[in-house]
Amino acid sequence: MVASNQNWSTRTPRCSSEQPCRGMSRFEKSGRHRSRRQMPRRRLPRHGAALLYALFVMTLASTLVIATLDSHVMRYAALRNTKEWDEARYLAEAGLNDAFARLEQNIDWRDGIPTTEFPVGSGATYSVVVSDGADGTVNIASLGTVGNFTRRLQATIKHGG
Fold first, then answer.
1. Are strands 137-146 and 149-158 parallel, antiparallel or unpaired?
2. How many domains does the chain have?
3. Sign of CA dihedral 93, 98, 100, 101
4. Which residues pair with 141 in a beta bridge?
5. Position 115 in a domain
6. Which end of the chain is more exposed for a tag (fewer CB within 10 A), N or C?
7. How many CA atoms lie within 13 A of 97 on its CB side?
8. Is residue 1 situated within a structural domain?
9. Residue 14 maps to a domain
10. pLDDT in tens, 141-156
């Protein structure tokens, strides 16, 4: 056998052609074995790993940016729709108030108010239709239009009580 203070890599194999080897690996049998410290580490080929990682990060970032922008666009559209919806109602109320003021001046007034842009140059309009109702009442219908939204308000009033 081999002395214990001898270097592992310089030891002679424990078997020979006369004596069969038992419990030894293929490399130990051939005498070409090395210690673990001397074995070079094999690395897997990593060609393109950085590119793959960069593509993944860019895809993730793009997805987040697109989702955020889509959310903001939807909120803006909802806000714009709400604003125009409210403005159309306010214009319809303005039409009713205009009709009330004209009826206070002349209770027999039934001409209505043609399409009126208010404020001038804004593209927002209102119009009023006035008609006689049952039992001496007056029906007033006002339409306010802003953008794609139209709101209709209706009021029934009675003169003298």
1. antiparallel
2. 1
3. positive
4. 129, 154
5. yes
6. C
7. 7
8. no
9. no
10. 999 999 889 999 999 9
